């Protein structure tokens, strides 16, 4: 059984080397669609192609992220069409699997009664030692998330702009597919590493960055719900720990 990992990117110079090093431990191929990066992302991917099984495509992003003009589903479906593995994993560039995933993956792929998998989703908030959890009215944090399915089953993304939703063949609900749950964590580092913010991150109003200007305010309190956090006491993937160690060393010499 082989696994294809698919990921769209746009200006992800911080995450590219971490992601590729992590994913290469369990993926048979990494398929990347770049949407027009200008920050060195493409050059870094091309450098990594000398060591890893990466297939790079250029699919220009249209529209602005999280708006009705965004072509995210088109890009993600393009990536699905390129995948050659028996299984497909849609792991985003700012996400890392728990290190033990490589050990349990063969067992997951060899199950004949499951065609799609969910994983616990751990969202870091502001730094790598704080996680955000669900609160009333704000139920999108630290849920299980669908991140892997059997290939050639007709699973694709619904033709949507703002949202990007998986669906089964013939437009059926993704929940109609036999599914399983793994206890291996997916770690989401979007708000913890690198710039910690991207265009339109204030669309939910919880980082207090107006008009995409300024830095996120991690203590901001939206009117609609509470932002609930707690300390993270677990382990990070090895590649992230190495990155944090290097960064600490650099800061100590500045």
Average pLDDT score: 93
Low-confidence segments, given as residue ranges, are none
- The CATH architecture name reads Alpha-Beta Complex
What do we call the CATH topology?
A: Spore Coat Polysaccharide Biosynthesis Protein SpsA, Chain A
Q: What is the number of domains? A: 1
Share of helix, binned = 10-25%
Instruction: Report on the biggest sheet.
Output: 11 strands, mixed
Secondary structure tally, helices: 5
The number of E-state strands comes to 13
| Strand fraction | 15-25%
How would you sum up the global shape? Answer: globular
Topology pattern, helix = H, strand = E:
EHEHEHEEHEEEEEEEEH
What's this entry about, in short?
It is built from 5 helices and 13 strands. The chain is of the alpha/beta class.
Please describe the structure with a list of short key phrases separated by commas or semicolons.
5 helices; Spore Coat Polysaccharide Biosynthesis Protein SpsA, Chain A; alpha/beta; 21% helix; two-stranded antiparallel ribbon
List the helices and strands and how they pair.
Elements: E1 3-9, H1 15-23, E2 29-34, H2 41-48, E3 54-58, H3 72-82, E4 87-89, E5 95-97, H4 101-110, E6 116-124, E7 130-133, E8 144-150, E9 156-157, E10 166-167, E11 179-181, E12 186-188, E13 228-231, H5 238-253
Parallel strand pairs: 1-2, 1-4, 2-3, 6-11, 6-12
Antiparallel strand pairs: 4-8, 5-12, 6-7, 6-8, 7-13, 9-10
């Amino acid at each position: 059984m082989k696994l294809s990992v698919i990921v769209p990117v746009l200006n992800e110079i911080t995450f590219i080397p971490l992601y590729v090093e992590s994913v290469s431990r369990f993926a048979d191929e990494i398929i990347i669609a770049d949407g027009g990066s200008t920050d060195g992302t493409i050059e870094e991917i091309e450098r990594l192609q000398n060591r890893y099984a990466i297939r790079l495509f250029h699919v220009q992003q249209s529209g602005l992220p999280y708006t009705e003009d965004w072509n995210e589903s088109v890009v993600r479906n393009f990536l699905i069409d390129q995948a050659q593995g028996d299984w497909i994993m849609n792991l985003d560039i700012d996400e890392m699997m728990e290190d033990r995933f490589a050990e349990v993956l063969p067992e997951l792929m060899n199950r004949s009664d499951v065609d799609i998998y969910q994983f616990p989703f751990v969202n870091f908030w502001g730094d790598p030692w704080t996680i955000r959890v669900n609160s009333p009215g704000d139920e999108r944090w630290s849920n299980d998330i669908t991140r892997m399915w059997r290939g050639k089953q007709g699973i694709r993304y619904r033709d949507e702009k703002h949202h990007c939703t998986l669906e089964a063949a013939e437009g059926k609900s993704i929940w109609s597919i036999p599914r399983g749950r793994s206890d291996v964590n997916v770690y989401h580092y979007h708000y913890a590493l690198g710039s910690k913010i991207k265009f339109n991150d204030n669309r939910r109003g919880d980082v207090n960055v107006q008009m995409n200007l300024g830095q996120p305010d991690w203590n901001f309190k939206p009117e609609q719900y509470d932002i609930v956090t707690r300390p993270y006491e677990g382990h990070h993937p090895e590649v992230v720990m190495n990155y944090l160690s290097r960064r600490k060393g650099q800061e100590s010499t500045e």
